C-alpha cells in the first residue's frame, strides 16, 4: 500500500529566518497514528502547515496521498486538503457567527468527496460526532463565539472528522479540554480514524497521550536544522 505521507530531504525557512526544518525522511502509512512531540517553537505547527499544503517547502519532496505537493498550485493543494484531510487547527479557525451545526457541516460544502463518503444525511452525521464528543445538544444551534474554548475545540474536531478524510492532522487538539472531555475526545478521534482507515498526525505537549499512539517521534531528533532554541 502506498504511503499517505512521504517526505524526502525537505527543508523550510520562514522568510528572512534561518532554516527551521530539515527533514531527511518521514513516512506515514495508511491508518498509522503518529504522535509528534517537541518544545515550543521547534516547528511542529510549521511542519503541519507543510503537510496540509498551506506552506511550501524550499527544497525536497513532499508526497501526500500520492501527489507531489511541490508540483501542485496553491489552489490544487487547497483542493486536496478540502477533499482528503481533516485539520484541527491550534486556533480552531471556526466561523464565529455561524452555528455549531453550520461550522461542522461547512466542511462538506467545499468537498463533494467528503459528501460522498457520508452514509447518512449531513446533519445526522454532525449530530453523531457532536454527541460522541459530549457537546450538549442545546448548543448545536448557537453561534460558536458563545461557546467556551473547550467546547469550540470539540466543534473543530467534529468539523475535521466529518466526511471521513484519509488523513487527519491535529495541532494541540486537547489543550483546552478537561480530563473527561479529553478522554471522550481521544476515544472518538481513534474510533473515527480506525473506522475510516484514516492516518493521524497529532502534535501535543501532553506526554500522557503518547502511549496511545502507534508511533511517537521527537521533532528535534528528526530535524537536522540547527535552530536557535536555547539549550538545543
Ligand atoms: N507565520 C510566521 N511567520 C514567521 N515566522 C513564523 C511564523 N509562524 C511560525 N514562525 C516561526 O517558526 C518557529 C516555529 O514556530 P511553530 O509555530 O512551528 O512552532 P511549534 O513547535 O508549533 O510551537 P508551539 O508548540 O509553541 O505551538 C518560531 O520561531 C516562529 O516564530
TrEMBL record:
Positions of the ABC transporter domain: 5-232
A Gene Ontology molecular function term of the record: ATP hydrolysis activity
Phosphoprotein recorded as keyword: no
Gene Ontology, cellular component aspect: plasma membrane
This protein's UniProt keywords: ATP-binding, Nucleotide-binding, Transport
SMART domains: AAA
PANTHER family to which the protein is assigned, alphabetical: ATP-BINDING COMPONENT OF ABC TRANSPORTER-RELATED, IMPORT ATP-BINDING PROTEIN
Protein name: ABC transport system ATP-binding protein
Protein source organism: Oceanimonas baumannii
Organism placement in taxonomy: Bacteria, Pseudomonadati, Pseudomonadota, Gammaproteobacteria, Aeromonadales
